[in-house]
Design a protein that fits this description.
This protein has 317 residues and is mostly beta strands. 5% of the residues lie in helices and 54% in strands. It has one helix at residues 2-17, and strands at 25-28, 33-39, 42-47, 51-56, 62-67, 71-72, 78-79, 83-89, 92-98, 104-110, 113-118, 126-133, 136-141, 145-150, 155-161, 167-172, 178-183, 188-192, 198-202, 210-216, 219-224, 228-233, 238-243, 251-253, 259-263, 270-274, 280-284, 291-296, 301-306, 310-315. Strand 10 (104-110) and strand 11 (113-118) form a beta hairpin. The chain is globular and about 50 Å long.
């Protein structure tokens, strides 16, 4: 009888612990969210509807919608351009959008106006663009090249081939002095943004394409096609992985690097665990489509964007 009671209690507690946590609130975007950052109490999200939305975190109101040029499809019709990435530096907003023939356009939005920085004439297949400082941006090409580009001179400071694999994603550290580059090989390359010098290779954990990567306080986390979320500690050189039952499309670290959230199953749920103890802190549900971005607001709250117009806000209990 005692064994039966113990078993019932264990199962009950396990079911209670596994109960999914639903969003505490949500935000509405104008299109499917492709990229998302939080800056100065505002969400900046790039969408597939030729726009970047600026949403107030507290009021949930859309403060502004910045439109970029549409493109012509193979039939010659005007269609929306996907905005692949967005970033903010002081008064400037950086937007990388889809262009024709597989190329990209890079815009700066300053004083309410769009400035076209790189057009299709440059014939660059840029996959991601972020600020290094107010006058310099880092560009990643699909062929796994990095370019440091000067916005004032419109010239390249340096250009390096990171690897021979197809580019997937990059993330900058807090002071933007280092960039971690992920590609289809599963390896990570750490490069100095000052001169493009290769600093370190992290390998042996992801066996296939790394969809996303994040970097906080010396902790790096990956989202892998091999259904592994990998945690690297750059400070002590340690690394480990956790396996999921589905492709891991998105990952995000808390500001301290002590907590990581990742898409953990085919139902678009998010699992959060402690990067030091590896203990699970919760399962977070209510995301309707494939995850595109996870951004922590603080140690206990995070945003989840998907291939839909809804951005969910969650709180870790």
């Amino acid at each position: 009888m005692m064994r039966l009671l113990t078993l019932v209690l264990f199962v009950t507690l396990s079911l209670f612990a596994a109960k999914p946590v639903m969003p505490v609130s949500h935000y509405d975007a104008s299109g499917a969210v492709v990229d998302m950052i939080v800056h100065d109490g505002k969400i900046y999200c790039s969408t597939d509807s030729s726009s970047v939305d600026i949403i107030d975190l507290n009021s949930k109101k859309r403060l502004k919608q910045i439109k970029v040029d549409k493109i012509k499809d193979f039939m010659g019709d005007l269609v929306d351009a996907k905005v692949y990435s967005v970033d903010v530096m002081k008064e400037k907003i950086l937007m990388l959008s889809q262009a024709e023939q597989g190329y990209r356009r890079l815009y700066l939005h300053v004083s309410g106006k769009n400035q076209l920085i790189i057009d299709t004439d440059a014939q660059l297949s840029i996959a991601k663009a972020k600020f290094l400082d107010k006058n310099t941006v880092l560009l990643a090409l699909l062929g796994d090249e990095l370019i440091s580009y000067d916005l004032t001179t419109h010239k390249q400071n340096w250009r390096v081939q990171v690897s021979g694999s197809k580019f997937s994603n990059f993330v900058l550290n807090e002071d933007r002095s280092e960039v971690v580059v992920a590609d289809e090989s599963g390896d990570l390359q750490i490069v100095a943004t000052k001169d493009g010098k290769h600093l370190k290779t992290l390998s042996g954990q992801n066996l296939d394409n790394v969809f996303q990567v994040d970097y906080k306080k010396g902790i790096i986390a990956t989202a892998g096609q091999d259904r592994r979320v990998v945690v690297y500690d750059v400070n002590d050189g340690s690394a480990y992985y956790k396996s999921a039952h589905f492709l891991i499309y998105s990952v995000g670290l808390s500001p301290s690097g002590k907590r990581v959230a990742y898409s953990s199953d085919e139902n678009n749920n998010v699992t959060v665990f402690n990067t030091k103890t590896k203990s699970t802190l919760g399962l977070f549900s209510g995301n309707k489509m494939t995850l595109s971005s996870i951004v922590f607001l603080n140690e206990n709250e995070f945003l989840v964007a998907t291939d839909a117009t809804i951005i969910n806000r969650f709180k870790i209990k």
